[in-house]
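Supplementary Methods. Inverse-folding protocol.

Structures were first reduced to a C-alpha cell string of length 182. This string, shown here, constituted the complete conditioning input.
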C-alpha cells in the first residue's frame, strides 16, 4: 500500500480559507443560510468552516449534523449493519439556503441520501454542496459539488484519506492511498 500526500497542513489551511471566501462572496451575512455537515466525517470540516466563517463575518451561523444511515440505498445490502450517528439540526431549514458539507465526494450516493434525509427538517430554498476532495471519474449519480477544495483524479482501487486535527490526528493532511489493485 502506497501513500501520496495530496495536501499538507499549510495547503489545506489555504484551501479552507479559499472555500470560506467563496461562501462569503455567495452568502454575504449568512442571514438565510445554514451549514450542515454530513456524518460521520463531514462534520469535522463543517465545524472548521463554520468557526472560520463566524470569525471572519462576525455573524452567528446555524450549524447542524446530518446522519444519512437509514436513507442510504445500500443500508440493507451490507453484511454488517452500519452504525447510525446522531443527527443534530436545532433549526428549521424551510426556505433557507443550505450548504451541505462532506470531506470527500466519491460516488454521490451519500449526497443523494443526505438530500432525502434533509427533507424531514423542511424544504430548503437552495442546497449547495461543498467538499474538500472531489474524486473525479468515480460518480455513479449525476451529483457535482458547488465548492471544491481539490479535484483529484482517482482509480477505483485508490482511496482518499482525510486526516484532521479535530479527529485526533497530529496535523491536517489529505492522502491518496493506493490499495492493492486486482
Amino acid at each position: 500500500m502506497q501513500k501520496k500526500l495530496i495536501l499538507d497542513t499549510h495547503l489545506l489551511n489555504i484551501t479552507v480559507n479559499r472555500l470560506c471566501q467563496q461562501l462569503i462572496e455567495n452568502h454575504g451575512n449568512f442571514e438565510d443560510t445554514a451549514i450542515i455537515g454530513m456524518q460521520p466525517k463531514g462534520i469535522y470540516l463543517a465545524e472548521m468552516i463554520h468557526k472560520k466563517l463566524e470569525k471572519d463575518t462576525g455573524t452567528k451561523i446555524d450549524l447542524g449534523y446530518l446522519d444519512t444511515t437509514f436513507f442510504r440505498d445500500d443500508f440493507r445490502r451490507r453484511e454488517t449493519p452500519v452504525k447510525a450517528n446522531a443527527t443534530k439540526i436545532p433549526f428549521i431549514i424551510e426556505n433557507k439556503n443550505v450548504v451541505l458539507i462532506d470531506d470527500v465526494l466519491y460516488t454521490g450516493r451519500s449526497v443523494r441520501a443526505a438530500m432525502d434525509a434533509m427533507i424531514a427538517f423542511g424544504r430548503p430554498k437552495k442546497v449547495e454542496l461543498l467538499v474538500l476532495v472531489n474524486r473525479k471519474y468515480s460518480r455513479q449519480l449525476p451529483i457535482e459539488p458547488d465548492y471544491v477544495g481539490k479535484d483529484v483524479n482517482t482509480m477505483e482501487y485508490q482511496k482518499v484519506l482525510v486526516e484532521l486535527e479535530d479527529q485526533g490526528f497530529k496535523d491536517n493532511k489529505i492522502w491518496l492511498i493506493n490499495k492493492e489493485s486486482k
